[in-house]
Structures are given as C-alpha cells and as structure tokens.
Amino acid sequence: MREATGAGRDPAVGGRRPGGDALADLPARLPVRVVWSPELLGYDFGHGHPMTSERLELTIRLAEDLGLLDHPDLDLVGAGPASDELLATVHEPAYVAAVHAAAEHGTRDPVRGLGTDDDPVFADMHEAAARVVQGTVEAALAVWQGRAAHAVNVTGGLHHAMPGAASGFCVYNDAGVAIRRLLAEGVQRVAYVDVDAHHGDGVQTVFWDDPRVLTVSIHETGHMLFPGTGHARETGGEGAPGGAVNVALPSGTADAGWLRAFDAVVPAALRAFEPEVLVTQHGCDAHPEDPLANLRVSVDAQRLAAQWLHELAHELAGGRWVALGGGGYAVLDVVPRVWAHLIGIATHRPVDPALPVPERWRSMVRDRYGRPGAASMSDGPAPRFTPWSSGYDPSDDVDRAIRATRTAVFPWLGLDPEHD
C-alpha cells in the first residue's frame, strides 16, 4: 500500500489512509441520491423484533436536523416495489411466489425462511421488501449512468437473503439484485464491500461463480456468530477463484484491530480488482452497544471506514459508489449516528465527529423514549491503528485472522500475501 501524503495524510490513523489523495481533484459534482420516503418504513417485522423501522426514521430525522438533506445538489428519492421479473434475476420464482403468499394470506413457509423467529410473516411483506430492492437498483443505475455521483440507501443492505429463502431479517437481497442489474447494463467489474458484524453470505452466494463480482466481507468469526460462514478459506467458486474475500475477526475485536484488518486487506484487494462500480454495506452492529454481535468498533472507526471507501470509490471507480445500510440494533445511540455520518460523507458534507447531536433530535428522542440518546456525534478519541506494514505478530488473534485471509486469497488476486 502506498504512503499517503498531503491531503491523504491522517495522523489519527498512523499517517495513512487507504484512499490516498483520490479526492484532491474532484470533478464538478453531480447530485448525490439519497433513497428515502416514509413508505420505506413498511419493512418492519413488528413489535419486539430487532429489525425495527424506527432505526431508519431516527437516522433520517438526525440527518435532517444536521442539515444534510436540504441542498440543491441532493436528490431525495423514494421507490416503488420492484417487479417480480426484476426480483427473479436473483431469487427463485417459487420463492417470490411464497413471499407474495406470506404477505397476502399470512402463509408461513419455514423451509423458505418465512414465518421463522428471524423472519416472521407480516402484512405487505412482499411490497415492503420489493420497495427496498427497487430503491437500491435505481440508485445503482443512477450512479452507473452518470445521473448521480454517489447514492445512499440506508434501508438497503439486506445481505443475508438467499436466492430461495429469507434469512437473518432479510427477505430480498437488494444488493444482489442491484449488482445483477449493473452487470446486465454492461458493467464489467463490481466490487462489494461489507463491514457488517455478520458475514455477507447472501451476496457472496449469489456471485460465488461470477468473476465479474468481487465480494469482500469483514465480520466477526462465524465460529461465534450467525450465519456461521465467512471463513478465510471461502475464496470463490470454480468459475471465480479469488472472487470472495473474507476476514473473520475474533470476538471482542476493537477499533485498532478492525481498522488494521481493513487496512491490510480491503484497499489491496480493490486495487487489484479495479472495479467500475463500488457497492458497500454499512451494517453498524459491530459497535460494542449492539445486542446481536460481539465486536467493539466505535462510531468513529465506522465513520473512518466509510470515508476510506468513499476515497477508494473516487480512486478506482470514477466515484461510482452505492452505499447501503444493513444491520445495527442499538437503535437510539448508534445506528442514527453511524448512518448520518455515512450520508454526510457521501454528500461531501462530512459531519465533524466533535459536533454535538442536535438538541432538536435529542428532545424528540427524549419525548418518545424517555431518554435523550447520545450527546455527541463521536464516541470519544479519534481511532488509531498500526498499519499492517509494521509487521505480523503471530501471537495476536487479529493478526492471525488477517494473515489467514491474505494467504488464502491474495495469490488469486495476483498479490503477495507477505507484502503490501
């Protein structure tokens, strides 16, 4: 990895940024698309379920109160439901029919993941999930066709949905359908990077044998966490060796290890692949307050990863970047802040981490939930890490996980696993 200088230097993270100086000479800005309308709140499994749509409403309200959504170079766009034909580019027609039956008649189909504890049936399930897909597909097309510089859909990132089954709170795989549509439009190489605490198994499955798609996932080890996959040895199918990159981190990994893993794997893999479009999933359940995972990654480190991915999109893909939401179940204190930061970065109006959370938002949260939520857009000190180039420590669990990934997949990408 090259050393960053000038605008690319960040002393808070060891003087390096994976995106280098890619933003130094931005072209005249196209508008940025943010996918949002109240109808998207329909994707909600009901009271008591972790995947509450309140996460989304609170995020958008915070983005509004931070002044991120009221600009002439931002397009705030809703979405209608995707057609069955579009869904069938990834999902089996029999599964789409089963989702229709679940939505219209309450029909459970546990074999297809419908009516389980993770994915209970709810009215309008099909329409709600299909609307998320259409939002991501239209966002991806706007970016590819030069109608938007970047696009953000925090309602998307439903990365566990399989071609024939719902899984892990995900009914339809919006990222998979959007990438498949980009390929149909003539895109030759799409990279998908997933920083959710849970492995991006559904997207990996869809493109396991497709050499035009690189999937990269940094997550808590599947030995400890759903869905139990994403091991370093999973490197792609016979048709696409090296097409899957998985960093399975030990439980308890915090900022320094998480950022070190990102630094050691993601930029090199993306640079080797040279994507034309970058699609990223920003599930924020790696935070220590999240109830469904066991990582310890701060709001600030997740913000930094989004910043790096933004820079890499400009460096490698002409700025063509589609950023999605995903998991994240600390509804008040984490999700709105992480995704507001993501929106700020994508709209080229990054939020200062030292900024107080707007009192208007905190008052709304206090009135609704009985407590005000986080006071600052930061969790504290700026995150720091030691770059991988400093050397490998065989006694460190994180370093062993990083080395396992680099050893397994870097040769397939034409990279030396022992050197940057």
UniProtKB/TrEMBL annotation:
<protein>
    <recommendedName>
        <fullName>Acetoin utilization protein AcuC</fullName>
    </recommendedName>
</protein>
<dbReference type="InterPro" id="IPR000286">
    <property type="entry name" value="HDACs"/>
</dbReference>
<dbReference type="InterPro" id="IPR003085">
    <property type="entry name" value="AcuC"/>
</dbReference>
<dbReference type="InterPro" id="IPR023696">
    <property type="entry name" value="Ureohydrolase_dom_sf"/>
</dbReference>
<feature type="domain" description="Histone deacetylase">
    <location>
        <begin position="49"/>
        <end position="343"/>
    </location>
</feature>
<dbReference type="GO" id="GO:0040029">
    <property type="term" value="P:epigenetic regulation of gene expression"/>
</dbReference>
<dbReference type="GO" id="GO:0045150">
    <property type="term" value="P:acetoin catabolic process"/>
</dbReference>
<feature type="region of interest" description="Disordered">
    <location>
        <begin position="1"/>
        <end position="20"/>
    </location>
</feature>
<dbReference type="GO" id="GO:0004407">
    <property type="term" value="F:histone deacetylase activity"/>
</dbReference>
<comment type="similarity">
    <text>Belongs to the histone deacetylase family.</text>
</comment>
<dbReference type="Pfam" id="PF00850">
    <property type="entry name" value="Hist_deacetyl"/>
</dbReference>
<comment type="pathway">
    <text>Ketone degradation; acetoin degradation.</text>
</comment>
<dbReference type="InterPro" id="IPR037138">
    <property type="entry name" value="His_deacetylse_dom_sf"/>
</dbReference>
<dbReference type="InterPro" id="IPR023801">
    <property type="entry name" value="His_deacetylse_dom"/>
</dbReference>
<keyword id="KW-0006">Acetoin catabolism</keyword>
